[in-house]
Design brief:
NmrA-like; globular; three-stranded parallel β-sheet; oxidoreductase activity; alpha/beta; PCBER-like; NAD(P)-bd_dom_sf
Length: about 325
Amino acid sequence: MEGGDKWKILFFGGTGYIGKYMVRASVALGHPTTVYARPLSSDSIPPTNLHLRDELEAIGVTIVEGELEEHEKMVSVMREADVVISALPYPLVPAQLKIIQAIKHAGNIKRFLPSDFGVEEDRITALPPFQAFLDKKKCIRRATEAAGIPYTYVSANCFGAYFINYLLHPSEQRNDVLIFGTGDGKVVLNYEEDIARYTIKVACDPRACNRVVIYRLPKNILSQIELTSLWEKKTGRTLERVHIPEEEIVKLSQTLPDPQNIPLSIIHSVFVKGDLMSYELKEDDIEVSRLYPDMDYTSIDQLLDIFLTGNPPPPACAAFA
């Protein structure tokens, strides 16, 4: 299945934060697209999810309702697919073992993308609360390999719009900004729509089979200090920079209860230690912009313009429990 052929893509977590971007990208790139989603009768379905499902169905997405405990139902849906992409949130990462079991039972899936899409968990060591999260993701990778399932692991680094909202609070017109540590650690902030398009492409690309694909888009590598300065230049405002020392972040990660300690541990890894850029790419690694050199992507400069003049994604909050 190469060239112009279309792959039938099945999503888990397709109505979540990053999942919805990927589902839209799958449809836009012409792939028959199915989302396996919790039944609407579930008490945990937020009202906004209902509108999103209507939107996805309107653009041609097939919604199949089911639970992750329904093994035979998942196998049945998988037998009508070529690729499985999981975009399940943090609390459901271990539940992907059920997806792996169903893929192995179905026997026809040509590629599985587990719910990574963040840091490259096999290359870094973080503070204990975040490391426990990464260890769960690593377990899913090892289980995928042990099952002999063809895979692509995606390290998409930071969701750009999510972190611009988190760091700069553009909708609130604040006069100050929190700087974590020195603010000099290099990070990678990629726009969610670009992450989604790249992910659909690598999911169907034979060059990415059984490989790690890392999204280090050159125009999106910068420090928090550089991001703040760029925002000040665009808005014509000067923000008071309030530095949070590394020692305070570490202490809070040790004293706050679970799961409140996880976001601070992520902040420490990404913005203080600069873990996203702390390792060299290996020979077997693929950097996505090199894989698709002709594909345009949104630079961090352009993404900030969207927040100023466009219709930016609203603030969101990751689920850790």
